Amino acid sequence: MAAEQFLLAAKQSYKVKLLGAPTRGVLDISNMHQVDSPSKNLTLHYSLSKSLRIPEMTIDGKGIQPDFYLDSSIPAYQWVSYTRGMLEEM
């Protein structure tokens, strides 16, 4: 969740471009709790609060979208070299 908050703040700058895949989209949900069932076979996860800071721009379920999407054809371990190459071409 802290990473999504950081990305949301960074995205406000015109100097920042995000590369990668969409985040998980959990920034609007907070105060998570969990309860185990009596049999310990199931665990219920629930939140006590949800942010409504900008109702028209929710992040839940969608995540923060990158400016440049890096799909699965580029393995995660190659993202840095791919990004470096992309910046050198600009």
Give your account of this protein's structure.
- This protein is an alpha+beta fold.
- Helix content is 22%, strand content 22%.
- It contains two helices and four strands.
- A two-stranded parallel sheet has the order 1-4. Strands 2-3 form a two-stranded antiparallel sheet.
- The mean pLDDT is 86.
**Uncertain parts:** none
Query: Can you list the strand order of the major beta sheet?
Result: 1-4
The gyration radius over C-alpha positions equals: 17 Å
Helices and strands, in order, run as HEEEEH
Strand portion, in percent? Answer: 15-25%
How far is the N terminus from the C terminus?
32 Å
The number of helical elements comes to 2
Q: Mean pLDDT across all residues, rounded?
A: 86
Helix- and strand-based class?
Answer: alpha+beta
Shape: flat
Count of beta strands: 4
The major beta sheet can be summarized as:
2 strands, parallel
| Helicity range | 10-25%
